[in-house]
Amino acid sequence: MDTTRDRILSAAEELFAARGLDAVSLREINRAAGAGSAVAVQYHFADRAGVVRGIVDKHRPAIDTARHAELDRLEADGGFDLRDMAGALVRPLATKLADADGGPEYLQIHAQLQNQHRLGAFEPAHAASSDSLQRWRAMVEPLLDPFAVSLHRRFAAIRFSAVELGQRAASAPHTDDRLFVQQLVDLTTSLLATPVSDEVRRLYDERPSGATTRSRT
User: Fold this and answer.
1) Which end of the chain is more exposed for a tag (fewer CB within 10 A), N or C?
2) How do residues 44-84 score in pLDDT, each as one tens digit?
3) HSE value, Cβ hemisphere, 13 Å, CA-based, for 149
């Protein structure tokens, strides 16, 4: 059923993807959705954050379900490596490239949120028990150099894959995304597996006392 709420989400997805999360007014979303009431967005979502949360809630469950399925398979098979884990990070999110119900737009919005370190603000209250990324982080950590973990290599991989998928989505449609997705898995594997250089270790040790890296795990 095409409800007013659905139309608002679809309009917001298109506008946020095209112009950015902070460059679109609620009035513009309301107008693009063809809502009969001038305050329809506020009625259904309260504010801009509520709209973004609605978009995340629309798409995230399917991604979490797909990633949990991959992680279940890896745990059942045993002996998984960093390439397997890179695939479990990338492929579930990449399914949104072919989702005609706002999938490419979501990937662009998701990339904005990851790049701006804002995704956590829009996670649902039950995210701790359903978040496949938290499970992915826990499973990949033992495969990494502990020093790479302290340098937030996991978050770098998450953000890199999100941004690359967002850029791919912005240039959609494509007849076949398989090559792109597999190459992204390869690149993400390299990011996770690249040894920490002696120079990086030295510079890390020379930081002022109390200094921290900007990224997060």
Assistant:
1) N
2) 999 999 999 999 999 999 999 999 999 999 999 999 999 99
3) 10
Helices (H), the chain: 4-19, 26-32, 40-45, 48-77, 82-94, 103-115, 127-130, 132-140, 146-150, 153-170, 178-193, 198-205
What is the pTM (predicted TM-score) of this model? 0.91
Q: Which of these, 194, 187, 148, lies nearest to 167 by C-alpha position?
A: 187
User: CA dist 217 to 11, 138, 156, 167, Å?
Assistant: 33, 10, 8, 23
pLDDT digits (tens, 9 = 90+) for 130-169: 799 999 999 999 999 999 999 999 999 999 999 999 999 9
Q: Which amino acid is at 62?
A: A
Q: How far apart are CA 104 and CA 173, in angstroms?
A: 9
Question: Is the C-alpha dihedral spanning 30, 33, 34, 40 positive or negative?
Answer: negative
Least confident segment among 125-134, 138-147, 184-193:
125-134
Half-sphere exposure of 30 (CA within 13 A, CB side): 16
Q: What is d(CA 37, CA 46) in angstroms, rounded to the nearest whole number?
A: 14
Dihedral sign (CA 105, 108, 114, 117): negative
Residue found under tokens 């890199």? 160
